[in-house]
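LOG
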Amino acid sequence: MTDIHPAPDHAVPPACPAHDKAVALAGLEYQQTPSELYRGLRAEHGAVAPVLLDGSIPAWLVLGYAEVSYVTSHDELFARDSRRWNQWDAIPPDWPLLPYVGYQPSVLFTEGEEHRRRAGVISQALAGVDQFELARDCRQLADHLIASFAGSGRAELMRDYAHALPMRAAVRMCGMPHGGDETRQLVEDLRVSLDAAEGDDPVAAYARVGERIHRLVRHKRERPGPDVTSRMLTHPAGLTDEEIVQDLISVIAAAQQPTANWIGNTLRLLLTDERFALNVSGGRLSVGEALNEVLWLDTPTQNFIGRWAVNDTQLGGRQIRAGDCLVLGLAAANTDPQLWPEAHVGAENSAHLSFSNGEHRCPYPAPLLADVMARTAVETLLERLPDLVLAVEPDELTWRPSIWMRGLTALPALFTPVVP
């Protein structure tokens, strides 16, 4: 696996006056009520706020819908190659965000024609996934998972269901063996690398993810099948094994963690919001509305790091210097009061930025496949367990301590036991 590494040839620029008032992207406010923090940042700084990442590393948080759209639509000004960063000399080798920003030969960091080539391979490989077959597979996976706890009358839905279903669906799409320690460890290491808890080692976890995907690619070179990995290997673009490993990591990570939290956040909404109470049991229209509302108000990917300024420029009234890091505030942008002046988010439309925007947005048809997984998971659970209720009061639910992902630590539920 290619090491995640900084680019040491950049010098750290003089201290930026704007960052004297920077806010650290950490703390309890982010964990439970990030919307309040975004509101405060907007009031003090406007659409682009100076912030501090882990270790007091300066960056810019882009909060405005128009500003996020502008950044993601202008790759010539705000690019993805992190080797441009002007802070690399200040980054230690065990920095917890290194899996996000350390340059790798991945589609995530490519630009221009190379990015279009790599993203095209992913899009064509994903386009080979039959959405009706995926929905059928997800229903089977859902039935199997539900059967494992249906007889007890209680379940912890994040652990037992929301995380398990997209994980199994994603690895099945990519041709990994169903179940087994290898698959379980892959998913755990992906969680650690993307959303590390205290005591986790995200850099080591990411290295283990690469090793496991390397083994999958070698296996599919020898024994190709009707799966995403094999289609990437046989694509005319002729990607190397290393390129495919890196891009598969991106595909699996995007399919698993965000989709799991999309499922969990939607179930929370359906089980706590009285607007859905009358129609929740198997109500397809209600489920669809809830899924879309979550993407506006509780999007699984809250913030995304990042873009790097190609030259000195201005954004949202701020002077951005060449090499500065910009964090895309997707959740803040989705609730921008400039977009919703009446403070009512119109969840009936799909113009949210939850899948980002521009050339580096989540490649088609990945959002459609994620929707199939999430919709099938939620609908099947409610159909099988129609009297599902929370086992705790809504205000007892807690969010995972992450500024990047929005997901519950647990979702305990009760229902009438179902005897097979």
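LOG (cont.) second protein
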Amino acid sequence: MQRRLPSQSERELIDTHQKSLDVNLDSRRYGTFAEIGAGQEVVRWFFRVGGGAGTIAKSISAYDMTVSDAIYGRASRYVCRERLQSMLDYEHKLNLDRLRDARGDTTAFFVFADTVSARNFHGTNECHGWMGIKFQAYPRDDDSQIIIHVRMLDNEAALQQEALGIVGVNLVHGALTLNHEPELLVDSLLDGLSTSRIEIDMIEFSGIVFRHVDNRAMSLKLVELGLSGAAMFAANGDVLQPSEFFYRKPILVERGSFRPFCNVNLDMLRCAEEKFSQLPSVQGKEIVQVMEITMRNLKAAGEVDLRDFLARADVMSSYGLPVLISDYFEYYRLAAYLSRYTKESIAITMGAASLQDLFDEKYYTKLEGGVLESFGRLFKNELKIYCYPLLDQETGELMTCKNLKIAPELQKLYGYLFDRGGINELDNYDPECLKVFSREVLRLIKVGDPTWESMVPSEVADIIKRKAYFGYQPALV
């Protein structure tokens, strides 16, 4: 059983003023604040509360692009991770070179940096930013680092700047006082704020203090705590920021439980990619393929089982696939999320049974427009659904999008979506894959029946056996 951490409402909350003061009064802490865009919102707190002279070595705002380039080097974009990292590295090295000999034995140096695009005068820009802190937990210690990406949701620039200052103070305070409890640190990032004002859709821990932290688990924690509606990581475990990963690319998503990732999941993705790539709007472009797991799926047994989650992530990673964790159980919410990050075509592939569930009106009772509103949102930007057939093991009947059993009152709606190309049949499937069902594969893994190995990619079989995932039992000799 995992140890349950106290929530925001249960632990003693410290306001932004006190957090800033706590850092200022810690005589070991000394560093630089470097902020591009949206003003000096974070460092202002440390000046305002008093005692800043003992904490702040330098405060800098290289707002002009030419000036910023002269200090930190050119970057492809000014509000991007590349720019943030160059700021952290440059300013931290400067502090160590200038101050380490004089006070390195008693001082743990740090650099906080951010590069932010707050709401412009016309309200036409994406309001987001990168924040990070590079620090020594103790004097003479090796470096550690935390990077986050935030989306600012307030409608006024002044409110966005206010929220930015608060989350920045939370990051500094958390890094310096809660680095031994990274999950509590994550939970503290929105102290004094709400998810209606700030969303944190990416966090990455690195360095000596966080050497045992699994960033995939921290990505999961962002979604579980409601700090973000979704989080992503690459096949190698690196955390991904959606707006950069999806930027100007067509997207193909497959949703599933992936317990484990089977040949049928792979075939579904292959079939959909073949069809999707033939669209005029997609031809010749790099398609991003993503495997999505919803929080509802991960919590099917109650609380999230971290080992089970990491097992699913590992088996998909072994095949080189990125993973998206989302709190968007409704497909129209997933579509809206993806549309936020790309103007290119988006496709979702699913089995016939899932497509049938999509037309169940019980899922849309919270929408004023019910099922009609949900499909209006889902297909708003010409989204495509690719339906993979389902083999009935008892009757041998094949369920496809052409013979799907839809409620009579929704059949015309279904026909309309099918006829206009919103729903598409996958007829290029491998018949052998239709016989593979993840529940049966999972059962065979647990009872030590080696026939399951032929039902999953070889890379997946190897990692399941090597790490004893999903209750794996070796075959009896």
